[in-house]
Design goal:
heterodimer, A: alpha+beta, six-stranded mixed sheet, five-stranded mixed sheet, B: mainly alpha
């Protein structure tokens, strides 16, 4: 027995030793980091700048930071909000990070009242008391102390990193100063309004009908909002209220604040939070959403009773009922003022999500969505000043749901990977949200005269006409029986018009590009996805999916047709009634995207047979598997249908696509896909800068490799790696003796990384002058000077109007290159007479 | 009838009576175990659904998710509020239909129970297997090998090492090694994941010679041998953590147990007769103690089924423990029930088999109609 035990122990030790010896080196920085960049290499290289990316699942953010520090991992795709981890990575020399501003924190107030159904007083029924909370709360404290610097104060219902805030920077600044921390003012307003409600202050405590006024603060426990809730509760206790703190998780709290009846009095304040993973370029709808019953159908929203003017403005903004951009900005300005007076929500901070990465890793991160929300990460990721090498990305969830290009997983981290595998015709700017062309050369947007649309970039044009008739041969619907498109002439013999026509000119060689499996693009790749758009909503079709119907009906309401203007080069017209304020967004929303039709065929056949379904909902209805093109039981089904398609030389939707697909092409494509599956073990074929090399579902790893036949040079998008946020230095006299004959000039240096900021890249340089009482005295635009210098000249009359005392000059700079505005301020004193004056430099 | 025939008849009657008693005992035992399983599974269903309150939570969650999807999609921006709310309502209803939330929970709970008892594990409501399948059986089966590999290795190692070391110590009562083991026994108060954190810190970060987690390196090696060795490397830390957390208390327990048997008169007699110590261990100590050892072994084996939630999370091990953790997080009742009902059946079966095994191993154990007779 002893011998056996000794033998077993020896075997175990030997196995462990072998495992240790054969394992990869775990030394920090030992991973393949490519080679130093050579300008020629960079120019000649196609597609991605690294050779391989391995995605792996890791949920423990603390561990990932250690792994990045150790060098075995290079990036954690999830934004972190933990201040301890943030401090650790900030102190590390081996770790860098990207910042994203998509999350925000606020206080949702219960507006029911003045009494709840239980007879208790609800002070927040009174808008003035709600408004007073803005003065009571020190947002800077919340941002710096509670969020540990991972947040910036926010006053308005506009995200401070999104374009609308930048566009309204001057107006926003004025409101922010008006609602700056002023607890005495808050106390005064609250006292007046409480007394008006019939409450009395006895021994420092508010009482109503003989009972202490009780406030229930519903505090979320999962993140820093727990401390926020405690902070607010403390403030309210100091103001004389009796406060009950109810600590709840998201689910527990949702039953109370969103699903429950606010009149029941189960809560007064809820520590809310909102998130946006894309840069929202039009936040005008926020007023309607956050302050009026139109926002949502839940009881809380139905309890909102906004001022009629706010109601009207928010509705007009929501309907985009304005003729010019200027009118919209006026509506927004007034709407923001009224929203602050209403204060059904008190905005606290915009959180900064930190995405950790190795110090020498560079890539384009989205200002709202971080790295996971960035479309450009696959085109820009690299080791600094190097090309090639392998990176390991950790994500908290991998292959969360089945992948298919029709209705597959839309989990953020799955989508992050598939973005690297596909090549979208347009890509959003990570810093402004505006789209840039990737596979199209240009676009023409034609809109009706009454449609306010703005164009920023010059790769597209916008013109307005009185009416846009839709040509009769335009495709507008799908006939499932005959398997062909229905034209406008057939469906609307009387003719129809559209509010927009978008003409998309694809790259001249678009249809010569290659898919990852070596097959060449064809027009059928563009048309088949369109057929699916319609046929999945048709009850007569075997692909009918009831869960798709509501979305399709919305689409159909504004869709007015689709027409191929030219096949070589490919030009397509899309007619629609749907409007976006940015013309670039209209093009992005309308441009058809290609899918390799031969990969869709086995999937379509599998859904028709009832074995698989594109969508989760239909899969559950059929008791079938949700179609996955990369793993699991779907693969054998797809393989079988691919075999039968090859055998029958199947051409999908023969009546429509027959002229676009020759039998020889069908055979060639099916053979290519068969080889691809045999080699890679999956059916995901794209055209992006990376191809899907292998999927290890149980081991939770996905391997991407560089697609060497990608058409673009590797450095195409590198200019988007760093957000070009203007850096400001405002200088001028500290003390001005007001002299009736003498103007004074302030200098504003706008730079980026020490270099003057291009004037063409700047959208606006606005200034605001506040007098000694903090009231806005003047606003205007700075004049451009030389070498990035801008000048603000104040005339003697303007200075005299300030009176004597301390004044403040505030500057707001907005750029075309980044949505985040930059601010600077300069305090100076005005004194009477001419005795003392600092010289203006 | 001759005396011989009469004797045979009595013998047959006796055997038949014994068989009848055994069958009756087994039937009653099976019935009791089945009732226990039914009650246990139903309690799980009720608890997992918080007595039906989960339905309410789920409805709220579905609505919030639908509302956020509609709010975030620019394609819906120009819809009126009424249209948008209508769209949200339709999306919510689709999900309510899919999850059958319109049916009262009490009815669904019996449906869950009925299917669970028939081992028809059905489809998960929210989750998927790692490869994308929705069948609960597949979700569980995909995770089973990883759990069996890790926990099987660790538990078998702990079991056999502790039994043999304890046997060894039982004959060296009061030795330095014995005192050391007793002193180390309280170290088992800390759970395996606690040791895991320290081991990761030491061997994955301070002296980075072993992986910090996962079942295999990234990307997984392509050759089978390299893959196997890589899995072995990834097992070292979690197995060590589990080993450290239970070996000393296990040795202490078995040592105490064996000490009781070691002091029996018949063992003293064997010693006095000068029998070899190996023979004393095997025949005089181990054999009478076999029933509890086998019970412990069997329970250890079925304990593998549940994995260990926190340990798997710490080591990012794709096993059943982390699956259960995810299922609870998603409130995916079919997956929770699936895990529990299989465990319940395995436990019931083990208890049943142990009853039989006891009778085989220990002739003193006999059954009677009314309570056990020996």
């Amino acid at each position: 027995m002893k011998k056996i035990l000794i033998a077993l122990a020896a075997l175990l030790v030997a196995a462990i030793a072998a495992a240790l010896l054969t394992g990869e080196s775990q030394e920090p920085g030992s991973a393949n980091r490519g080679k130093p960049v050579d300008e020629d290499d960079l120019r000649d290289r196609r597609g991605a700048l690294v050779d391989e990316i391995v995605f792996t699942q890791e949920t423990d953010v603390g561990k990932v930071v250690g792994l990045i520090e150790r060098g075995s991992h290079h990036l954690f795709a999830q934004g972190i909000t933990n201040t301890t981890v943030f401090q650790r990575l900030r102190d590390s020399e081996r770790i860098g990070y990207e910042e994203a501003y998509g999350s925000s924190s606020e206080l949702t107030l219960n507006p029911v009242g003045p009494e709840f159904e239980n007879g208790e007083l609800n002070p927040f029924h009174v808008p003035a008391i709600r408004e007073a909370l803005n003065w009571l709360i020190d947002r800077r404290y919340v941002a710096q102390e509670i969020f540990g610097g991972m947040a910036s104060p926010r006053v308005l219902p506009l995200n401070t990193a999104f374009p609308d805030y930048a566009r309204l920077a001057a107006e926003a600044r004025a409101l922010e100063l008006h609602y700056a921390h002023d607890p005495e003012r808050a106390q005064k307003v609250i006292s007046e309004e409480m007394r008006a409600l019939g409450a009395t202050l006895d021994n420092g405590r508010w009482h109503y009908q003989g009972e202490p006024v009780r406030l229930i603060v519903l505090i979320r426990t999962e993140d820093a909002r727990k401390q926020v809730g405690d902070y607010i509760a403390n403030l309210l206790e100091d103001t004389g209220f009796r406060v009950l703190r109810r600590y709840r998780t998201a689910q527990e709290a949702s039953r109370i604040w969103i699903a429950g009846d606010p009149a029941a009095g189960r809560w007064h304040i809820y520590t809310g939070g909102w998130i946006s993973t894309v840069i929202n370029r039009d936040e005008s709808e926020n007023l309607s959403y956050y302050y009026t019953p139109r926002g949502r159908s839940e009881p809380l929203w139905q309890a909102y009773d906004p001022d009629p003017e706010l109601d009207e403005i928010s509705e007009r903004l929501q309907r985009r009922d304005y003729a010019t951009w200027q009118e919209r900005q006026q509506l927004m300005t007034r709407g923001l003022e009224l929203a602050m007076e209403n204060s059904a929500r008190v905005w606290l901070v915009d959180q900064i999500n930190i995405t950790p990465r190795a110090e020498d890793v560079e890539l384009a991160a989205d200002m709202a969505g971080g790295i996971a929300g960035s479309w450009l990460w696959p085109y820009t990721v690299r080791f600094r000043d190097r090309v090639g090498g392998r990176m390991v990305f950790a994500v908290p969830g991998l292959l969360t749901e089945p992948w298919n290009p029709v209705a597959g997983s839309n989990w953020m981290f799955d989508v992050m990977i598939t973005r690297a595998l596909d090549d979208s015709p347009l890509l959003p700017d990570p810093f402004t949200g505006l789209f840039w062309p990737q596979r199209i050369e240009r676009a023409e947007v034609r809109v009706q005269e009454d449609v306010p649309v703005e164009r920023t970039h010059d790769w597209l044009s916008v013109d307005t006409v009185e009416e846009i008739p839709v040509p009769p041969e335009t495709w507008i619907d799908w006939d499932t029986g005959d398997e062909r498109f229905v034209t406008v002439a057939e469906k609307h013999p009387e003719g129809i018009t559209a509010r927009t026509r978008t003409r998309v000119h694809y790259e001249a060689d678009y249809l010569q590009h290659q898919w990852h499996d070596g097959t060449t693009f064809s027009l059928a790749d563009v048309v088949l996805p369109w057929i699916l758009t319609f046929t999945r909503a048709d009850e007569d079709s075997e692909l009918f999916d009831p869960s798709y119907l509501p979305t399709f009906e919305v689409f159909q309401r504004h869709f007015r047709g689709w027409r191929i203007v030219s096949r070589q080069p490919l030009v397509i017209d899309i007619y629609s009634d749907q409007i976006y304020p940015d013309a670039e967004a209209i093009v992005a929303a309308r441009t058809p995207t290609a899918q390799p039709w031969h990969t869709l065929v086995p999937a379509i056949l599998a859904e028709r047979s009832g074995e698989l379904a594109f969508s989760s909902n239909k899969a559950d209805r059929l008791k079938a598997n949700w179609l996955s093109m990369v793993a699991g039981p779907s693969l054998s089904v797809l393989e079988r249908h691919l075999g039968s398609a090859l055998e029958q030389q199947h051409v999908p939707y023969q009546a429509q696509l027959g002229e676009l697909i020759e039998e020889s092409e069908a055979v060639q494509r099916y053979n290519a896909l068969t080889d691809w599956y045999r080699e890679r073990g999956h059916f995901w074929v794209g055209s992006g800068p990376f191809y899907l090399h292998s999927v290890h579902a149980v081991e939770q790893a996905v391997v991407l490799r560089r697609f060497e036949d990608f058409p673009d040079p590797a450095d195409k998008w590198l200019r988007f790696v760093q957000p070009k946020i203007p850096e400001l230095n405002l200088d001028g006299p500290m003390m001005i003796a007001v002299d009736r004959n003498r103007p004074h000039t302030f200098q504003l240096d706008i730079t980026y990384q020490g270099e003057p900021y291009d004037h063409e890249d700047l959208e606006a340089v606005n200034y605001l002058l506040f007098d000694g009482d903090g009231a806005p005295a003047l606003r205007g635009r700075a004049r451009p000077g030389d070498d990035g210098r801008w000048l603000i000249k104040l005339t003697p009359d303007q200075l005299a109007a300030l009176g004597t005392g301390a004044n403040s000059l505030e500057v707001a700079v907005t750029s075309h290159r980044v949505a985040l505005p930059a601010f600077a301020s300069h305090a100076f004193a005005t004194i009477p007479g001419t005795t003392l004056t600092e010289e203006t430099p | 009838m001759s005396q011989f025939d009469s004797g045979r008849a009595i013998k047959w009657r006796g055997r038949f009576r014994d068989l009848r008693r055994i069958m009756l005992f087994m039937a009653m035992r099976l019935l009791a175990l089945f009732a226990t399983v039914v009650v246990g599974v139903y309690l799980t269903i009720v608890i997992a659904n918080m007595g039906g309150k989960v339905d309410e939570l789920r409805r709220v969650q579905i609505r919030m998710e639908a509302a956020e999807v509609v709010r975030a999609d620019p394609a819906f921006f120009d819809m009126s509020s009424e249209e948008r709310n209508e769209l949200i309502d339709r999306q919510v209803q689709l999900e309510v239909d899919r999850l059958n939330l319109d049916q009262p929970f009490i009815l669904r709970s019996f449906d869950y129970l009925n299917r669970a008892i028939r081992l028809d594990l059905g489809r998960a409501e929210q989750m998927h297997s790692d490869t994308g399948a929705r069948e609960v059986s597949r979700i569980i089966v995909e995770r089973l090998p990883a759990t069996l590999l890790l926990f099987g290795t660790a538990n078998l190692l702990v079991f056999f090492v502790s039994v043999f070391v304890a046997l060894h110590l039982s004959r060296r009562y009061g030795s330095a090694m014995d005192r050391t083991m007793i002193a180390l026994a309280p170290s088992s108060a800390a759970p395996a994941w606690f040791y895991g954190i320290f081991l990761i810190l030491l061997f994955a970060f301070v002296a980075p010679i072993l992986p910090a987690g996962g079942m295999v390196g990234v990307p997984p090696p392509e050759s089978r041998w390299a893959y196997a060795l890589d899995v072995l490397r990834h097992m070292i830390l979690p197995v060590t953590a589990m080993f450290l957390s239970s070996i000393f208390i296990s040795i202490y327990s078995w040592r105490t147990f064996f000490l009781i048997h070691s002091s029996e008169d018949y063992v003293e007699m064997a010693r006095a007769k000068g029998l070899p110590s190996g023979m004393i261990e095997r025949r005089y100590i181990l054999r009478p103690a076999l029933s509890p050892i086998i019970t412990s072994f069997a329970l250890m084996l079925i304990g593998l089924w549940s994995g260990a939630i926190i340990l798997e999370q710490v080591f990012n091990w794709p096993g059943l423990g982390s699956l259960l953790f995810q299922a609870i997080g998603h409130r995916d009742t079919p997956v929770i029930i699936g895990s529990v009902v299989i465990f319940a059946y395995l436990l019931a079966l083990t208890v049943f088999l142990l009853d039989i095994l006891y009778a085989i191993l220990d002739p003193r154990v006999r059954v009677g109609i009314k309570g056990g007779q020996s």
